Every structure is written in C-alpha cells, then in structure tokens.
# Entry
Amino acid sequence: MTVRSTPSPKRIKRKDVDNEDRITTLDLIIIHINELVTMDSKYGVPRKGKNMAELAPIHDGAVAISGNSIVFVGKTNELFSTFTPNEKTITIDATNRLVTPGFVDPHTHIIFDGFRENELEMKLAGKTYLEILESGGGILKTVKATRKASLEILIQNGKKILNRMMEYGTTTIETKSGYGLDVENEIKSLLAVKELNLEHPMDVISTFLGAHAVPPEYEGKTDDYVELIISEMIPKVAQEELAEFCDVFCEEGIFSVVQTKKILKAAMKYGLKPQIHIDEIVDTNGALLAAELNAVQTGHMLKSNDEGLRAMKKAQTIATLLPGTPFCLMMRDYAPARKIIEYGIPIALATDLNPNCWTESMQIIIALACYHMKLSPAEALTAATINAACALQKQEHIGSLEVGKKADLIIFDVPNHNFLPYQFGVNLVSKVIKNGNVVVDFD
Ligand code: NIG
Ligand code: FE
# Structure
C-alpha cells in the first residue's frame, strides 16, 4: 500500500452552464469504468425490498472529484463534454474495473487489547459463547487486558485495524467502547476512538457500550452496574461529547429488556442515539424493544420474531446483520435476511470486528451474506454502502456516488460487482479514494 499526498487543486472550466463561466476545481477523474455502481438515491435511502437489488450500473462510467467532493458522475463521454480536463488533473483509467462507494462498516468493536485465538479450540470442543464468557473468557478476558492497556496502546492497536480496513475498501466505520466496563476505562476507550478519528483518514463514529457485559466486581449485582452506567458513565460521556450513539448487549444472562430500556432511555435524555445488540442467541423480544425505542439500528437479529420485525419496519429501524459472528461461533443458523427484506426492513452489513470475530474485510462479509444468508451480490453491496451509511445517519454525505457527496470510493481490480462474493477471501481492491485522496494504491 502506498499513501499519497493530496493532489494540488487545479482550476478548470465547466462548459455546460448557460454561457455562465462557472469555474470548478477539478483534482481527480476516473474514466472508462467498466461498471460504475453509484447507489443512486432514486431507488430509496435507505433501500428496501426489491430496490436493494437495483444497481443500474453505468458502463464506461466516470467520476470527477473536486477537493473532497464528487462533482460529476456519469458516462465518460459526458464527462468530457461537460468538463475540459486540465493537464494537472490526475486521471485514473478504470478499464475492466468496478467502482463503488467506499464501504461503511456500521458495527465494530476495535478498541481492545489482547487476543482470544485460544477460544477456537474451546468452541471446537462444544463450548458455547455464553459458557466461555461465564468461565471468565470471552468479553471478560478482553476486559482484563484492555483495563491494563494504556490509551496509547489502544490507539496503536486501533490504527493497525483501521489501516487494514482501509486497504480492504472501508472508508467509514462505527466503533464502540465496551471492554473497559468502569468509568475510567470506558472513558479511556472513547478517548481512543476520538483520537483515531482525528489522526486517521478513516471517519470513525463513536458509540458508548458500557453495557457490553457485567464486570467481575459487579457479579450478581447487574442492577447496581446499570445504575453506575446511568448515573455516572452516561452523563460523563455526554458532557465530554465522546459518543454519538449508545448501545447495549441485550441478551439472556447479560442485560435484560427492562435494563436495556432503562439504559437507553437515560442515554437518549443526554442526546445519545440508541442502537442495540438483539436476539443473537435467544429471542428476548429485542426487535420489539428496538422499535419501541426508535433505535437507529440493531445488530445480530438471528432469533428475532415476526411481531418484532413488523414493529421494526414501522419504526424504520435498520437491521444491521453481522454474518461474521455466526461464522466464527460455528452456528448453524444465520439471521433470516430474506425474511427481513420481505418485511420491508432495510438491511445493512457490518464486520462486528471484535476479539471473537476478527475480520477487517467487508468483502468477506459480503461473501458470507451471499453464501449463508442468501443475499444477492447487488443486495449485499447495497447493505455495505448506502444502507450502512443510513445505519449511522450519515447518508447525506456518504454511502453513494452522487454530486455533492464526499469523494469516498473504491476501485476494484475486477470487472463487475458479482466478483465481490465470487472471488472470496482475497483482497480485490486496486485503489481506495478517501476524501478525494488516493489513500490505498495496489497498482
Ligand atoms: O457483537 N455480542 C456482543 N458483543 C460482540 C462480541 C464481543 C466479544 O465477544 O468480545 C458481538 O458479537
Ligand atoms: Fe457487536
């Protein structure tokens, strides 16, 4: 991977505006794109039902970028009849290549220290996720290591993950605290998120997940821990503006529906927007709760019931599906994606990157979504771009390639989007453009 500096802006003339000599600064053009997938907003934002599969790709397409924004999307010949390229404008020829919006990964847990590679053997021996957690492994093992780690270490770990995510085409992520589980270490984790967003080209959106597990010092006293979250953590997180969202791991044996509601209602009072991990292992009526709270997005949903799905459709909550997790837990069932689409609920996809399910690649998530949840390649790409942007309420700026939006895009070294799940387990990226700059270049 090479990192390039920002190209120097060059002023060029636009020809098509009623004799008016409008001047646009044009820095970068991508031309002769074999298949340009724009995620045009005319098919809905977010996309639901049949519109999730409606790619309407442009052949021999072109994108023009000025500063950090897109100023043209269309056919290559239209670009040249609209703009007169200047000799200093950088030109990328994308013959035989696929161009899509940058991936948005709307559910990750990248702030942690330590590894859990030993847990695969436990899983192979038949231990369940909750059994591993109850025996002091799982989340609690990561909590031990994360509490010991300095802020600098957490930032260093996070940077490594962000670099790899960007190499695989991701240009915006959401990430969470949740391995600190006390005031000091939850704040430390969110400070790491803040610093990563400032220092790294990736846009990193922050979520407070103090309710990820009950820490050992509160064992058997979950309600007291909930009280700590409500009375101390949430006010501090809000006051220091360290998070935009609040999340809870609502699951049997972790946080109940009643406790989840209490936490998220308190968070909402402080302006944090709600999202929830629901119905991953047991159906706790999480989908119904998500709808009742008007959650922006929910994670997992393997076991959600029909009543909950109907309510989520009404509430317009996005279902963020995380097929990497059942894959790593060797579960037989995945989230019922086809049924969720039939209900008219928009689906987003995310890696859920965490020490139990560690992948930086949205490409592998697209493959898992197609092979295990029966999404079509087009639906999976929609879920990884525009719908994922909606899951973070960032659809005005990212998730599609349209004039005025941020110039975040991927050039793949494959001819069309069907290759994304087809040629799986390898990186198909040729270049990544973030904020108008070529930040990854494998050519
Ligand atoms: O979304 N389920 C809860 N949280 C994460 C896993 C965290 C961990 O195992 O460390 C998830 O899968
Ligand atoms: Fe998660």
